[in-house]
């Protein structure tokens, strides 16, 4: 099973993210108990879509816009910080 200790995850976040890309998810354990999960964005979107069909449509639209290059820069969204 894909379980990682929270401290190890914190200290190796970059490697953990790469692992999520390969395995779709990592379960995060604190003191031996699974408390949360780190999941690939596509899996997360699929899980959300099971709950809300409108959300699925918005994801498809967002992916199409992204593929067409219709994106905003960080500054356009958040302004100057």
TrEMBL record:
Pfam families hit by this protein: PhdYeFM_antitox
Family (UniProt): Belongs to the phD/YefM antitoxin family.
Described purpose of this protein according to its UniProt entry: Antitoxin component of a type II toxin-antitoxin (TA) system.
Protein name, entry field: Antitoxin
Species in which this protein is naturally found: Candidatus Woesebacteria bacterium RIFCSPHIGHO2_01_FULL_38_9
